[in-house]
Design brief:
Number of helices of chain A: 14
Radius of gyration of chain B: 20 Å
Strand content of chain A: 5-15%
Protein name (chain A): Carboxyvinyl-carboxyphosphonate phosphorylmutase
Number of helices of chain B: 9
CATH class of chain B: Alpha Beta
InterPro entries (chain A): ICL/PEPM, Isocitrate_lyase_ph_CS, Pyrv/PenolPyrv_kinase-like_dom, Pyrv_kinase-like_dom_sf
Distance between the termini of chain B: 55 Å
Largest interface: A-B, 22 and 26 residues
Structural class of chain A: alpha/beta
Helix content of chain B: 40-55%
Order of helices and strands of chain A: HEHEHHEHEHEHHEHEHEHHHH
GO molecular function, one term (chain A): oxo-acid-lyase activity
Distance between the termini of chain A: 35 Å
Strand order of the largest sheet of chain B: 1-2-3-4-5-6-7-8
Structural class of chain B: alpha/beta
Pfam families (chain A): PEP_mutase
CATH class of the largest domain in chain A: Alpha Beta
Radius of gyration of chain A: 21 Å
Number of strands of chain B: 8
CATH architecture of chain B: Alpha-Beta Barrel
CATH topology of chain B: TIM Barrel
Number of domains of chain A: 2
CATH topology of the largest domain in chain A: TIM Barrel
CATH superfamily of chain B: Phosphoenolpyruvate-binding domains
Helix content of chain A: 40-55%
Shape of chain A: globular
Oligomer: heterodimer
Chain lengths: 301, 251
């Protein structure tokens, strides 16, 4: 089944040591399809992009479980590569965490992360974050691990303690979360290359994720460099949201000013190319398989 | 009632409420009836008002509450065979173990019976079979048109469905007036099931036909009516008590 294959593929990609897995956050199914078509091997369904694309709001804990789950489900259904989920704080207490894990597993996600921010959370690179006591997320991680149906549905811990306290506290917490059962570790918003190296050194045998947000707190490094440093996953969470906003604004300003899209066509795909990309031929082929003539022949009428 | 008659059959209740399903009313398998869901969500029993995505969303909630087999209500396939193809994919990945597909026109109409052409229906059946990811996901057929295409039409459709590989077939929209015809069909097709529906034949007659299985939407809708009446009594009684207490306190 597809979900089994996706979990296995993700696990394999995360635990192999050759190179870091480049994961892109897709704001929607279309961008996920684009990512898949250019060779990305995994998609991340995450809060910053979903808050923006679904609500037109910032990542400040307003996009809830229902919105996040449904977005992830749509993306899972649209692509044939693994989709990892941002499950924020698990959306409440341990009962919520159980439901969150069961629901994401049921829709075919390959895993999820849970974080230690206080709700309502905010983007990891925004100012003003606060975190729970570490025992809170440790208990959620243990609950999530116990709730999953498949061992290869991977659970990642995320700590936001770097900004609130310091890197030592973030590392200390992440070790606790790993001991609680987290398969992977994510320390959000390290502030320098030295800090990234410290994280890698602290977890030599645990898959780590690095988050490359444009203009964020962490220095931007190529995926290959982060892989050599010891990171297993490198995610770009905002690139497509920013690119879409940029081009939308550019095209719309021009349309508003000129009344046509002629000047913007150079930045667009064509009607035919888009229909081909989005799979019109495949859908038409499905329809063509069940015409009255074909069915009459099938049943010998 | 059906067990008392001295023969065994698979009795499949129509349910939609997670509490009732959890209370083991579902048994081994149950029918997640679009009509019940439409009544709850839309205050209208016309199931065709529910789109596929709305129904599938509800199905996903229910899927997480039970390990019982869920027969999903595929209505009449939500459009043409291409729509049915994608509908079956969506229902399967939302947790359906089986999908019941009817031969009415789209959109299905509970008050006015119209059946689609046999080629359109068999196209939808074939599309359903092709769309499944898991071959264990059962495609079930519901034939509603006995009053339109008659006994021979039913038999022809059953024969074609068997050739396409459909094992579980149920007759719906059954009326008392067609009792003799029904007896004939069920006598010839021991694997045939039926839908017990609000406006159709009663449980006594259904049992007398000795179907292989019964999907019962009738009893659940009757229970809903009686529950509404009971709840109304309780609420009226509570209102009366509250009004008395308020009057007493204000004295």
């Amino acid at each position: 089944m597809k979900a089994d294959k996706m979990r296995q593929a993700f696990r394999q990609a995360v635990f192999q040591k050759q190179q870091a897995l480049a994961m892109i956050v897709a704001p929607d199914s279309l961008s996920a399809r684009v990512a898949e078509s250019v060779g990305f091997k995994a998609i991340f369904a995450a809060g910053y992009a979903t808050s923006a694309s679904n609500l037109g709001l910032p990542d400040r804990g307003i996009a809830d479980f229902g919105i996040m789950l449904n977005k992830c489900r749509e993306i899972v259904n649209a692509v044939n590569i693994p989709v990892f989920a941002d499950a924020d704080t698990g959306y409440g207490n341990l009962t919520n965490v159980r439901r969150t894990v069961r629901s994401y597993e049921a829709i075919g996600a390959c895993g999820l992360f849970l974080e230690d921010q206080k709700w309502p959370k905010r983007c990891g690179h925004m100012a003003g974050k606060s975190v729970e006591a570490p025992e809170v997320l440790a208990e959620k991680i243990a609950t999530a691990v116990a709730a999953r149906e498949h061992d290869d549905f991977l659970i990642m811990s995320r700590t936001d303690a770097r900004q609130v306290y310091d890197l030592d506290e973030a590392i200390r917490r992440s070790k606790l979360y790993h001991e609680a059962g987290a398969d992977m570790v994510f320390i959000e918003a390290p502030k320098s290359i030295a800090e990234l190296q410290q994280i890698a050194a602290a977890f030599p045998d645990v898959p780590l994720m690095a988050n490359m947000i444009e203009d964020g707190a962490t220095p931007s490094l190529p995926t290959q460099v982060l892989g050599q440093m010891g990171f297993s996953i490198v995610v770009h969470p905002t690139a497509l949201t920013y690119a879409q906003t940029f081009i939308d604004e550019k095209v719309l300003k021009n349309l508003k000013a000129t009344g046509t899209t002629d000047a913007a066509k150079a930045h667009m795909v064509t009607f035919d190319k888009f229909n081909q990309f989005i799979g019109l031929d495949k859908v038409n082929a499905v329809e063509a398989r069940y015409t009255p003539e074909k069915i009459a022949a099938l049943i010998g009428k | 009632m059906f067990q008392e008659r001295g023969f065994s059959m698979d009795y499949i209740p129509a349910l939609s409420d997670a509490f009732l399903i959890k209370a083991k009313l579902a048994g081994n398998r149950f029918y997640l009836d679009g009509q019940l869901i439409a009544g709850t969500l839309l205050e209208d029993d016309e199931k065709s008002l529910l789109s596929l995505s709305e129904y599938a969303n509800y199905l996903r909630y229910i899927r997480l509450t039970t390990t019982a087999q869920i027969i999903a209500d595929g209505q009449s396939g939500f459009g043409n065979p291409m729509n049915t193809y994608y509908a079956v994919q969506e229902l399967e990945r939302s947790g359906a173990n089986a999908i019941l597909l009817g031969d009415q026109t789209y959109p299905m109409n509970l008050t006015t019976l119209e059946v689609t052409s046999d080629l359109d229906f068999f196209g939808k059946i074939q599309a359903s079979l092709d769309a499944r990811e898991n071959p264990a996901t059962a495609i079930m057929a519901q034939l509603d048109g006995i009053s339109i295409y008659g006994v021979q039409g039913v038999q022809d459709r059953i024969d074609t469905l068997h050739r396409l590989g459909i094992q579980q077939i149920a007759l719906g929209a059954l009326q008392q007036a067609t009792a003799k015809q029904l007896a004939l069909i069920f006598a010839h097709n021991p694997d045939l099931g039926l839908l017990l529906q609000p406006e159709g034949i009663g449980p006594e007659m259904a049992a007398s036909l000795a179907p292989a299985f019964i999907i019962d939407t009738q009893v659940t809708l009757k229970a809903r009516t009686s529950y509404q009446a009971k709840l109304d009594q309780f609420i009226q009684a509570q209102r009366a008590i509250s009004t008395k207490e308020v009057a007493h306190e204000s004295r």
